[in-house]
Amino acid sequence: MRLGSGWAGVARRTLGRHTLLRHTIAAVVAVAALAVLTDAVSPYRDLQIAHMGYILCAAAGLTVLTGLGGQISLGHGAFMAIGAYTTALVLNHWAWPLAAVLIAAVAVTAVAGFIVGVAAARLHGPYLAGATLALAVGLPGLVSYEPVTGLLGGQNGLSVSPSPPPLALGETFPLERWQAWISCLCAVIVMWLLANLTHSRLGRSLPATRDDEIAAALSGIRVARVRIITSVVAAACAGLGGALLAVVTTLAAPGAFPLTLSLQLVAAVVLGGLGSLAGAVWGSVILVLVPNWASNPDVTSHLPHNVASNLPALVFGVVLIVVTLLFPRGMQGGFRWVGRQVRDRLTQRSG
Asked: Does the pTM exceed 0.85?
């Protein structure tokens, strides 16, 4: 027993000191668990998991930007649109491998994030929120601008050919499961990168720039540089989410990126817990499952049309209010509080 306890203690201390190792093990476990899950559920559930994956990519980047960096962004839906349209254009004009297409979408969106970050480096609070809000409202409308309508497809958007599963997986391998694998793998990679970023020197400087930028500048932190880098990272994550959205839904259209998408991403981050990457997971799950459940015909069949059409937004709003009131730190904060309470009770009983 002592030997087992000793090895367990050594393992805990080793993982506590080696952040990269700890995050890598967690990523491998997550990939294995998702592979088992997607194999066990129906194609419809696989499609839902794929939706959760690309929402998580965007929500995780927004968690770092807003939760840790304190930069309120209401324009993440616009960055997702850039990633989706880049994916559609590359796939429709060049026969690139899917991995190269996703990298191209991330690169293009990162450039857009750099431009926005430079412009908004000295903005904060409601001023930054207003600037990003204008981006979310105005950018999707550019598809109706006559010089680019033919290129971007106007209001109808651009169709994207589905990326078929590799032949090595078998001719009958479900497309939905393959899409879930792609989306989940990208989400795990994003979470792994962001988890390590938040434990880096840059990540440790984010709370300082959020809490007091003057004190941060006096301590040697380049506030503008940190904000620009964070904007680039968050935009790149949103671009990857938009690229995966185009791959999963096989469409890049302005109707997929309304202002409500940007607001829902912010709500998902708040629901899960500001500044918590694990909270972004919970927020993404709720953002996909709750509106889907509320729009289920079994739920809405006996309701008037006007009520049924607005029920998903209503239910999501109620969930947001209830979670915020019960757990001001979000769901992840609530889980931690419950865990502490259980641990204290067990300690008292054992004592």
From this structure: yes
